[in-house]
Amino acid sequence: MKQTLTLAQWLSAPRPAEMPIAWQEEHIWTLGHLRHDVACLIAHLQQQEGDRWALCFENSYLFIVALLATLHAGKTPVIPGHCRVSLLNEQSALFDGVLSDNTLSWQGPLRVVSSTMAIATHDIPFPAIRDDAFVELFTSGSTGKPKRVIKPIDCLDSEAALLATRFADRLAGCRIVASVVPQHLYGLTFRIFLPMALGLPLHAAMLWYAEQLAALSHEHRYAFISSPAFLKRLDHQLTPPPVRMILSAGGVLPWQVVTHAADWLNIWPDEIYGSTETGVIAWRYRQQEETTWQPFPDVSFRQEEHAFRVFSPLIADVEGLVLDDILQFAENGRFHLTGRRGRVVKIEENRISLSEVEQRLLELDGILDAAVLPVNRGNRQSVGALLVLDDDMRKRWGKNQEMAWRKALRPLLEPVAIPRHWRVIDEIPVNSMNKRVYAQLQELFHEAP
Q1: Would the CATH topology of 1-155 be identical to that of 345-447?
Q2: Per-residue pLDDT of the chain (449 residues; tens, 9 = 90+)
Q3: How far apart are CA 221 and CA 217, in angstroms?
Q4: Which of 8, 274, 307, 375 has the greatest number of C-beta atoms within 10 Å?
C-alpha cells in the first residue's frame, strides 16, 4: 500500500512543485501554487489577534489553503457546517473571524481568500503545526443547539491512513470528484484528507447535478465521493463518465439506487457508515441487497439496554460513544442497521435536529408551542410541524402564512429541515409524566386534514 502523508507533510514532503493538487475547469493548482497561497495567508493570520477562524468555502482548493494556513499560523480552524450569514452572526461567539472565498456581510473580521496562481519560487520554512492541533466541527445535537466536536489532526490523519489500507489500491490513478462539501466530516475526510494523503488531484468544485458528473473529461479516471441523495438523481439518459469507484455515506442507499448506479456506471458503490463524533465505523461493498456492514479494524461494540456503545482507535474517549443507530449483529460480527434513536433524524442524508427546528419555530411571532416530527409520504421523508398559535395568528393562519414561516426559517435551517407539512392544533398532548409521546403525535399529525 502507498504510504500516506500526514497533514503536516502536505506542504513539506519532497515532491515536484508542478504536482497537481486540484483543478476546476481550465484552472490547475499545483503544489507550488499551494505553497505560495498558504504562505501568503499565514502572513496575514499571524498579524491577527483572533485565534479561532471559521472556514466557509465553496472552492475546495481554497478550503485547503485556509485549513493549512490556520494550522501553520498556530490558529484553530472552526468548521461551522454552513456558510449562511444569518447563522454566522448568531454563532459569532464561536469564532473570532471568518475565512471565505466569498464576500460575506457578516458582522465581524473577514478575509476573502483567493489564489493569484503565483508559484513559490523557493523553499518556504512553514511554521510547525502544534502536536495537539485540532479542528472544531459543529453538528446538530439532540438539544437543538449546534454540538461542538473536536477532531485532533492526528486523528484525521489516522482516519485517512485507515481508509487508505482499504481503498488505496482501487483509488490509484484516480482523480477525486465529489457531491459533498468539506463543511462536514464525511466531505472533510474523503474529499480533502484522503486525496491529500495519497497525492491524488481533487476537483475544487461541487458536483450539484448528474449532468456535471456526466460531463467529466474521458481523459481521466475518477473516484466519486457521493451522497445517497445525489445517486438517487442519476439520469441514465446521459453518457456515463469514467468513474472507477463510488463512495457513499451519510445514509443507507436503497437497493434500487445501488442497482441503478451500478447499471449506469458499471461499478458497485462502496458504502461508509460512521458519524462526525465517531469517524468511520464500518463499510460494505453491496452486490446483494442484504449485505451486512463490516466494521473497520479494531472497532468494537457493547450493547447497553436499547443502545450500542462503539469503541474505535478514531475515538479519543476511552469510554467510547453511544450510537444514535440501532444495530442487529450476525454471528460473524457484521451487522445490519435497523433504525435510529432519539430526536436526531436523517432526511436526505442530512442529520436534522428536530429539537432545533422546534426552537426556531418558537422564535416566530404568534407560535405558542410546536412539535416537529418526520413525516413519510410515499417514498419521501420530510419534516412536519404541529403548532399551537395565539388568537391573532390563528385567525391569519393559511397557505400564505405557511409560506411566510418557510421564508423566515430559510436563513436559519437546512432546506430539508424546513417543515413541508403544517398542522394547527389546540394543544400539544402529553402523557401522565408531562412527556410528549411522539408516536401519538404521528397519529395526530396524520389524522389532521
Answers
A1: no
A2: 568 999 999 999 999 999 999 999 889 999 999 999 999 999 999 999 899 999 999 999 999 999 999 999 999 999 988 888 888 888 888 899 999 999 988 888 999 999 988 888 778 889 999 999 999 998 755 444 678 899 999 999 999 999 999 999 999 999 999 999 888 899 999 999 999 999 999 999 999 999 999 999 999 999 999 988 889 889 999 999 999 999 999 878 888 889 999 999 999 999 999 988 899 999 999 998 889 999 999 999 999 877 899 999 999 889 999 998 888 898 899 999 877 676 778 888 788 888 888 889 988 989 988 889 888 776 678 899 999 998 888 888 877 888 999 999 999 888 999 999 898 888 887 654 345 666 678 777 664 44
A3: 9
A4: 274
CATH number 3.30.300.30 is the correct assignment for the domain at 345-447: yes
Question: What whole-number distance in Å separates Cα of residue 191 and Cα of residue 206?
Answer: 10
Q: What is the pTM assigned to this prediction?
A: 0.80
Please answer whether residues 240 and 262 qualify as being in contact, where contact means their C-beta atoms are separated by less than 8 angstroms.
Answer: no
Superfamily of domain 207-342: ANL, N-terminal domain (3.40.50.12780)
Residues sharing a CB contact under 8 Å with residue 382, sequence separation 6 or more, in sequence order:
347, 374, 375, 416, 419, 420, 421
Task: Assign domain 1-155 to a CATH class.
Answer: alpha beta
Of 56, 171, 39, nearest in space to 115 by CA: 39
**CB atoms inside a 10 Å sphere around CB 407:** 10
